[in-house]
């Protein structure tokens, strides 16, 4: 979101300006020029508290006098509340004059951009970017993953105790691995006392974090994961009495990890045990469950790397992750990452390279030198020159005779290099390399590694100086969006926009909401993810459907808890996620999804304040200052006859609260039909729900709402919401303030977004193209200046 906390002044500011207006000079009040009258009042009576340019003054009112209220809203606040206790002393034209002066001079966004234009900041790789970049450096040597629409795992059933193509009886796709065959044959044509099943495919990860892989089985099995030669769990020689096996590891969003299971029921002289196996996981913040079909693909993707070294969190105070802090903790973490990747390069990448280049000359370890040159070229995002080769390769190989040690030394040196850690410090790189670097960084949080993209660079086809360069770069960016890596980054963006932490635990009062447990929350998260993906990856990719869509993804557990509005569109097994039937009047896109509504509620009641703050800040892009003092919500037991709306009105009724809560409450109240777990309701405390509310847009237009439906339809068409969404997308993907790219960039992106019928994928493409070309355009502008 915005780079500064542009906020409407609270009670302190109200009082300070009120005191100023008490003694405003007569000559100012009589001035015919409102700006002159407002300036005179401000300079003579307000600057001592707020500073000459509204910057705040130590010992008086220290907060900056900035925000996004319109002149009319500011004038209304001044006219209604200033001076405190005697508001009639500053009304009408005087209040408007002060409001106009501070708004145009330093308060509004336009004034702030004019006075202090934001700048792009030099940033290192964020934790996510470091993980993604190392993963793509690794995958470069095995080939890139592709998009696979089918779900589940490929399964081969053999009437033998091992792989024997002559005894293959069944080939199919199993939606998940959760079987209890007992002492029966798993499929027709296979004997129950001896058989072998081979499951193959990949695990698709939506969120970066710590996962626990759990396999339960009474039979012999081996699970390979990430690399075809990497055995994660080995029960080939069965451990007597042990049937549960667990492994915890860090996995990265948007990656597809190859997964292979060899399952064997052996012929025995003793009594045959029942045959069963289940493949489960515990995702971040979730509970153990069978890995669902949507996270399994039947294609075995290329070998993949997942960094296990723990990285410190990045600064997210600006609304997006920024790699701005460099300290001992970060440096130690990068070193650990380099050491870990060095081992993988030695044990897995180097053998792969040697197999592919076994006929190449190896005089003076030339094959190893070529391997390291390719690895460093990918890491540094450009071909290496002779000086770089001498420092990073020749010197390291000359120092040690052991190939493995040499590889680890090179990886340690390269990954700790600013040329890897600071991807935009590339002014000396060829133009096509610079464009490709920014496309990969924007869309994947990574670096250029795909063979087809590297060929584009080699042919200099991404050079902004080429004819029709922008259109070709747009075509390349569009091709790059058809990738699972983008899916991971998009899902992260949506969860941030919706103010939902996918790993956070949500608990509710079981006396009121029996059955709302961690398993249900995990299903809600899956439902929200599928609902978001449904809209984003549709042909239209229509942003407006995020507010007005009337279907969600449901399963048996959700259906039982949420009732008929969550009935499936068609029959299904209990485990599967399927589309629901339409529920007009009870559901409005992801805005009212229970995962969102329950997250924005208390343990046992709704929270119109949390919901209102979410709407005004995240969805509408407006700014609010923190409350002047912490407050505890009124305990519902103290007023058992009051509805939630009535309690909130009681608590926030004071004029100092209303400066902000007039905005917050009018939005939050519109969602009162959805209780603390997101179930639709029409009454509370035996009283009809009052879901009326309102909003004043940035252009000063008053909008009234009668229900959540009115709100949803307004948000779908609101210019405030559209601009806010464009800013959220830009800053999440580029990790720089949109304003630093010039006001014309924001206007162009919003205009293109509208002209595309609010196509979100096209918006991301335009954001990527803008980030890729902007440095070149700036250099040209500087040369002309």
TrEMBL record:
Secretion signal span: 1-28
Claim: Chloroplast is one of the keywords in the record: no
Positions of the Cytochrome c domain: 33-106
GO MF annotation list: electron transfer activity; heme binding; metal ion binding
Annotated SUPFAM superfamilies: Anthrax protective antigen, Cytochrome c
Transmembrane spans: none
Keywords: Heme, Iron, Metal-binding, Signal
Stretches assigned to the PA14 domain: 148-295
InterPro entries: Cyt_c-like_dom (IPR009056), Cyt_c-like_dom_sf (IPR036909), DUF1585 (IPR011478), DUF1588 (IPR013039), DUF1592 (IPR013042), PA14/GLEYA (IPR037524), PA14_dom (IPR011658)
Coiled coil: none
Protein name per Swiss-Prot or TrEMBL: DUF1588 domain-containing protein
């Amino acid at each position: 979101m915005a780079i500064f906390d542009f906020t409407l002044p609270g009670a302190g500011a109200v009082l300070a300006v009120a005191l100023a207006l008490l003694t405003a000079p007569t000559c100012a009040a009589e001035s015919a020029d409102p700006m002159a009258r407002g300036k005179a009042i401000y300079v003579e009576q307000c600057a001592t508290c707020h500073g000459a340019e509204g910057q705040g003054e130590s010992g008086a009112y220290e907060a900056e006098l900035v925000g996004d209220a319109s002149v009319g809203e500011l004038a209304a606040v001044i006219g209604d509340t200033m001076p405190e206790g005697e508001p009639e002393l500053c009304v009408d034209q005087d209040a408007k004059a002060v409001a106009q002066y501070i708004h145009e001079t330093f308060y509004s966004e336009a004034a702030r951009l004019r006075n202090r234009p934001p700048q792009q900041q030099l940033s290192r790789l964020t934790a996510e970017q470091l993980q993604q970049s190392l993963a793509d450096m690794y995958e470069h040597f095995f080939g890139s993953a592709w998009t696979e629409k089918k779900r589940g795992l490929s399964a081969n059933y053999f009437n033998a105790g091992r792989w024997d193509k002559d005894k293959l009886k069944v080939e199919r796709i199993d939606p998940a691995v959760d079987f209890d065959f007992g002492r029966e044959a798993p499929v027709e044509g296979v004997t129950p006392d001896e058989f072998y099943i081979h499951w193959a495919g990949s695990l698709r990860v939506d969120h970066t974090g710590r996962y626990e892989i759990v396999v339960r089985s009474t039979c012999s099995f081996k699970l390979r994961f990430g690399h075809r030669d990497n055995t994660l769990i080995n029960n080939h020689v069965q451990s007597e009495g042990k049937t549960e096996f667990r492994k915890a590891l860090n996995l990265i969003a948007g990656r597809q990890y190859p997964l292979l299971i060899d399952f064997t029921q052996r012929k025995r002289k003793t009594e045959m045990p029942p045959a069963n196996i289940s493949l489960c996981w515990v995702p971040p913040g979730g509970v153990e469950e069978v890995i669902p079909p949507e996270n399994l693909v039947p294609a075995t993707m290329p070998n993949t790397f997942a960094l296990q070294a723990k990285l410190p969190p990045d600064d997210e105070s600006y609304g997006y992750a920024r790699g701005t802090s460099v300290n001992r903790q970060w440096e130690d973490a990068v070193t650990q990452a380099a050491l870990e990747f060095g081992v993988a390069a030695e044990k897995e990448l180097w053998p792969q390279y040697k197999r592919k280049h076994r006929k190449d000359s190896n005089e003076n370890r030339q094959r190893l030198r070529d391997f390291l040159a390719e690895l460093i070229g990918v890491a540094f995002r450009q071909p290496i020159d002779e000086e770089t080769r001498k420092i990073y390769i020749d010197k390291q190989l000359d120092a040690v005779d052991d190939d493995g040690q040499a590889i680890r030394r090179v990886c340690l040196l390269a990954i700790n290099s600013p040329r890897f850690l600071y991807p935009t410090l590339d002014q000396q790189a060829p133009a096509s390399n610079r464009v490709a670097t920014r496309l990969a960084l924007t869309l994947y949080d990574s670096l250029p590694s795909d063979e087809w993209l590297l060929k584009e660079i080699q042919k200099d086809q991404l050079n902004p100086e080429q004819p029709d360069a922008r259109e070709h770069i747009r075509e390349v960016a569009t091709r790059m969006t058809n990738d699972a890596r983008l899916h991971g980054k998009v899902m992260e963006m949506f969860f941030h926009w919706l103010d939902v932490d996918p790993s956070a635990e949500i608990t509710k009062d079981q006396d009121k909401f029996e059955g709302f447990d961690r398993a249900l929350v995990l299903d809600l998260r899956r439902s929200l993810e599928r609902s978001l993906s449904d809209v984003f990856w549709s042909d239209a990719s229509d942003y407006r459907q995020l507010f007005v869509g009337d279907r969600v993804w449901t399963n048996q557990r959700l259906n039982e808890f949420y009732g008929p509005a969550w009935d499936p569109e068609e029959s299904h097994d209990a485990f599967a996620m399927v589309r629901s039937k339409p529920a007009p009047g009870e559901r409005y896109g992801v805005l009212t999804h229970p995962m969102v509504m329950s997250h924005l509620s208390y343990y046992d009641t709704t929270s119109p304040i949390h919901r209102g703050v979410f709407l005004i800040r995240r969805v509408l892009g407006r700014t609010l200052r923190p409350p002047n003092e912490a407050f505890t919500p009124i305990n519902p037991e103290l007023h058992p006859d009051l509805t939630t709306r009535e309690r909130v009105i009681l608590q926030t009724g004071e004029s100092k609260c209303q400066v902000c809560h007039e905005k917050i409450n009018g939005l939050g109240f519109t969602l009162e039909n959805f209780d603390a777990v997101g179930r639709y309701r029409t009454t509370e405390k035996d009283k009809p729900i009052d879901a009326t509310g309102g909003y004043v847009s940035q252009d000063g237009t008053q909008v009234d709402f009668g229900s959540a439906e009115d709100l949803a339809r307004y948000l779908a068409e609101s210019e405030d919401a559209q601009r806010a969404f464009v800013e959220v997308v830009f800053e999440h993907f580029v990790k720089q303030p949109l304003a630093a790219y010039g006001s014309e960039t924001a206007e162009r992106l919003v205009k293109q977004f509208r002209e595309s019928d609010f196509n979100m994928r096209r918006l991301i493409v335009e954001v990527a193209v803008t980030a890729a070309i902007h440095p070149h355009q700036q250099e040209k502008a500087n040369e002309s200046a």
